[in-house]
Amino acid sequence: MTITDAPSADELRQHMADRLVREGCIRSEPWRAAFLAVPRELFVPDFTVRAQGTLHRYSQGDPAWLAAAYQDVSLLTQFDQDGTATSSSTQPSLMAQMLEALDVHDGDTVLEIGAGTGYNAALLSHRLGPDHVVTVDVDPELVAAAKARLRLAGYEPTLIAGDGMAGHPERAPYDRLLATCGVPRIPKPWLEQLRPGGVIVANIGCAIAHLDVAADHSAAGRFLPGLATFMNARPTPDAVGTTAGSLVQPLLTWSGQTREITIPALDTPGPQFLASMLHPGISDFALADDEGRQIRCLFDPVTSSWARITTTGVTSARLDHGGPRDLWAEREPLLTQWRDAGRPGHERYGLTVFPDGAHLLWLDEPDGMSWRLPD
Ligand SMILES: C[S@@+](CC[C@H](N)C(=O)[O-])C[C@H]1O[C@@H](n2cnc3c(N)ncnc32)[C@H](O)[C@@H]1O
Predict the structure, then answer these.
(1) Atom 1 (ligand 1): residue with closest C-alpha?
(2) What angle in degrees, to the nearest 10, is found between the helix axes of 9-22 and 29-37?
(3) Residue 207 Cβ < 6 Å to ligand 1
(4) Is the shortest distance between the CB of 233 and ligand 1 below 6 Å?
(5) In a domain, 167, yes or no
(6) Strands (E), 205-304
(7) How far apart are the CA of 132 and the centre of ligand 1, in A?
(8) β-pairing verdict for 207-213 and 219-223
(9) Which of 24, 274, 347, 356 has the most CB atoms around it within 10 Å of its CB?
(10) Which residues fall within 8 angstroms of residue 255, CB to CB, at 6 or more apart?
(11) Contact predicate 239/245, CB 8 Å
(12) Are residues 209 and 251 in the same domain?
């Protein structure tokens, strides 16, 4: 294919919107129109894509840049000194699902947490009008860049540099809140700033919660299909990615206490979901040893407690662990409960957040089996 055969931005956008409709991620005409109207490439002049463990960098002007900007992947746009991504343009299929789940109506005002590149704020502005969109990012440089790009695209929503965990009380009450950074718990200010009947769509643990706000400013609901983890809200410690990355070598060689255990079902989505909710600060990752065996690791950055699980047979494994917390002894009962409950997927769980900030995770119904989540 010669350069002149390359699809135009309009064609790429059409192709992306068609695919999102086909896959059921876009379910309504107004969101299809928004994805067709907003040029994603305008918001991502430089980005990096992670594919099969390798990072590929694209910059405006590169022949492959435009098509890459329309891939259905997360485009990483900012990194810290350790190489951990700190901002991105979220995967369009996930964004579309979250936007549809918000269930907005004309006249609604949306608070977005995590302005990032500004692309999502542009989609919201197209759908609702810029006067109905407030977006917050913790990084003032990102906010300045997003503001400039939004203006170029023809939208001027309200952009705020600040900690999104505090919301933005000046424009409350909001009808909808969409968080595009992960939170360990739903912050109380969000509940206070949403009107009764409002909706919160936010990544908590490794799932996307869809919560309806009640008259007393509690919120309750379930989780969207599919598991997804956004980059954690800063300055909260970024549990999984960062810690796992920086611990690769040490954790494989640390020595501590050892015992035999039955092989855990750590990798299946149900236990992963439960662990992300009930043990939010614990990094949970797999490493390959010299022989290519998968070694499962748990790490608590607060107490430096760790656990390493090495498969030794069809149903057996060796547990090595150290530090003040026995992380496996804490994790194992979760797995047993999950197995005894019939191995439910995360769609069978629900979450209630009370006005005082307490979180209750429940199975099937609010008065069913439940867990008060640690603060
Ligand atoms: C996945 S990106 C957001 C993508 C964005 N919605 C877009 O369309 O490009 C997550 C963003 O959350 C921001 N963030 C992290 N912690 C935050 C916090 N405490 N308050 C507000 N934003 C935060 C990051 O700076 C990052 O830009």
Answers:
(1) 88
(2) 150
(3) no
(4) yes
(5) yes
(6) 207-213, 219-223, 257-262, 283-288, 294-300
(7) 19
(8) antiparallel
(9) 274
(10) 320, 322
(11) no
(12) no
Average pLDDT (168-185) is 97
Are residues 178 and 145 part of one domain? yes
Q: Which element (helix H / strand E) includes 12?
A: helix 9-22
Ligand 1 contact via 200 beta carbon (within 6 Å): no
Same domain? For 214 and 299 the reply is no
The CB of 94 under 6 Å from ligand 1? The reply is no
Distance CA 46, CA 53 (A): 19
Contacts of residue 316, Cβ cutoff 8 Å, sequence gap at least 6: 260, 261, 262, 263
Cis peptide bond prior to 235, omega within 30° of 0: yes
Q: Are residues 39 and 182 in the same domain?
A: yes
Tokens of 4: 């002149």
pLDDT of residue 265: 60
Judge whether 360 lies within some domain.
Answer: no
Reported as a single tens digit per residue, the pLDDT across 215-233 is 999 999 999 998 888 888 8
**370 three-state secondary structure:** strand
Query: pLDDT per residue over 285-340, tens digit each?
Result: 877 777 777 788 899 988 989 999 988 887 788 999 999 999 999 998 888 888 88
Do 248 and 101 share a structural domain? no
Shared-domain flag, residues 69 and 101? yes
**245 & 218 share domain:** no
Across all residues in the chain, what is the average pLDDT? 91
Q: Which two tokens stand for residue 110?
A: 């949306």
Q: Can you tell me the distance from the alpha carbon of 195 to that of 110, in angstroms, rounded to the nearest whole number? A: 11
- The response to whether residue 165 sits with its C-beta less than 6 Å from ligand 1 reads yes
Helix (H) or strand (E) holding 31: helix 29-37
Domain end, chosen from 188, 223, 258, is at: 223
Between 192 and 342, residue with greater pLDDT: 192
- Residue 266: which domain range? 240-340
> In which residue are the tokens 């269930």 written?
103
Evaluate if residue 245 carries a pLDDT over 90: no
- Residue 209 contacts by C-beta under 8 Å, 6 or more apart in sequence? 186, 200, 201, 202, 203, 221, 222, 223, 224, 351
Q: Which residues of 192-220 are buried (b: 16+ CB within 10 A; e: fewer)?
A: ebbeeebbbbbbbbbbbbbbbbeeebbbb
